[in-house]
Amino acid sequence: MNSIIKSVAGGAFCLPGNDIDTDRIIPARYLKCVTFEGLGVNVFKDDRAQLGGKHPFDLAENEGKSILVVDENFGSGSSREHAVPALTQWGVKAIIGLSFAAIFRGNAVGNGLVCVTVEPDVHKYLVNEINTGAFAVHVDLERMVVRAEHQWEGEPLPCAMPESHREMLITGRWDSLATALEAGNAIEEAATKLPYMALVAC
Amino acid sequence: MSRNTLFDKVWASHLVRSLPNGQDQILVGLHLIHEVTSPQAFPMIEERGLKVRFPHRTFATVDHIVPTSADGRQRPLQDPLAEQMLQHLERNCAKHGIKLFNLGDEHQGIVHIIGPELGLTQPGMVIACGDSHTSTHGAFGSIALGIGTTQIASVLATGCLLLEKPKVRRINIDGVLKQGVTAKDVILTIINKLGVKGGIGYAYEYAGPVIEALEMEGRMTICNMSIEGGAQCGYVNPDIKTVNYLKGRPYVPKGGWENTAYRWLEYVSGENAVYDNDVKFNGSDFEPIMTWGVTLDQSIPVNGMIPDDSSKEANEAREYMGLTVGQPLVGVPIDVAFIGSCTNGRITDLREAAAIIKTHGLRVAGNVKALVVPGSEQVRKQAESEGLDKIFSESGWEWRGAGCSMCLAMNPDKLQGRQLCASSSNRNFKGRQGSPTGRTILMSPASVVACATQGKIADIRQILN
Ligand code: SF4
Predict the structure, then answer these.
(1) Cβ separation of B429 and A77 shorter than 8 Å?
(2) CATH class of B167-237+268-285
(3) Hey, is the C-beta of B433 within 8 angstroms of any chain A C-beta?
(4) Prediction ipTM score
(5) pTM for this structure?
């Protein structure tokens, strides 16, 4: 059993651009490791170096923020799970985007990182709210809404995630290994029906 | 919802149970692991006191971090971090009874090359590997999934994955490929047309006369890059070529051969199969194609011009690549040429490249560093027995040992500074080939030969004609 995640709230910031791949999130040279520790400092390393302090992950105003708003196809490319701890160790707790690459999304839920999608109009609205001083964004997984908060409470707008991911997070069962283990002997039974499962080194 | 496709049949035969949340628990019958994504997975299962559930169906190799030059392959590896990763893999495999095709083993190589080569990959399997290009194995009519490290731990300990069944899209390619157009051009064209996110939520079935006419290794090139189009996996229905390719390989059963082959072919999508989506292309229209930007759909036919696209992505890509709107791709100077990777590092890729070099008496241009890296030690041996290594080295190419090499920046083969590489690999992402400002133009191995010869982006058809 993991912790139950029913909602996430925090300061929000935007990382514009479609197709931000996992090679950019964590360049391959930082995959030379045997644990996931210490990845956070190198998140977006090369993109940040190129922008000389102006990358959203470097701006002083974004320090301590935890809700990231991205565009389309975030996390595409390499399956490297390292991308998820790199983001969470920096402080990201939830990502709101137009779409996510499938493997990244699976890796995220396995680490309790919330990824929700929103429709383009909601996305545009959120980006605008954040750029005009909303101090927090609230992602509510029970009602599946996002809210931008100013001094007043913003309007709840719909967001989405695969129902199975939502259920895993709000019940604290995002440990898929534990769930798979519960099948017990049914696993071996399924295996005996497949002749190739008996194949060993020739 | 799709029905009676190969995907449906293989999925159903590996279903352990369906969960109330809509996920299916699917048995993974072949688990491949490598040094980059597995070291964190073993502690995840050991902390819970769990063992590897099906060690005899789990196989490992080392590919990403291995140096490809002869002296770099001595142990301990010069890079202490690489050596540490390899030692972890060795220790994990020894402890859990997993067969490792280690550095120095005659079967070491890129995981997606050695699976088919050893006959580990077979029709009707569910295959998983902590690597996005696992989709390669779909060329044999299997469901082949790239997974993350947490999922690797799940497959190690339970032999299973919890998955939502994707939709199935059939991509039918009619016609006949023209001269100079290869399997690589086919998949780059498909990605160009459907986009890098077009495949999200889908498994791709590649079908039609063009796919049927391709040999197994071309089909692998196509399935390999399914992930670059956003698809969860890609596959081709097995046929007589699939069966012939596998016959006699080390892990293919020798007894009861006909039954085995018959069983494989039973997985073929039925005539009454229903797809969630159908897409048709005419392959006769395809041309040699190359990427010009930093995502896989930023591509144009080789004789095209950098498109007038004012999107933020296109602007950024042009700036990164140092290209301008309306500029022809042909003629852009290159610094490095690379033939290799799990996309195009197989024996037929090397044969095709060598044949072009030999027939037309080509030499690498003086300003170009050119590298040929066989995808596996078996490919290297085979190529050397056919004298391909000599054709390459006598015409200015460096001939190396097996590994991922310049496909990504985890071993000594790297671009320097803003070098531009004509590459047969699969990703043109910023920094992918090892320099944070390095530039990549993706293309077929034949096109890489054309570019290496001229020292600039060139149209292979001008050499062939
Ligand atoms: S050759 Fe490239 S894409 Fe293929 S497994 Fe190696 S690093 Fe990954």
Answers:
(1) yes
(2) alpha beta
(3) no
(4) 0.92
(5) 0.95
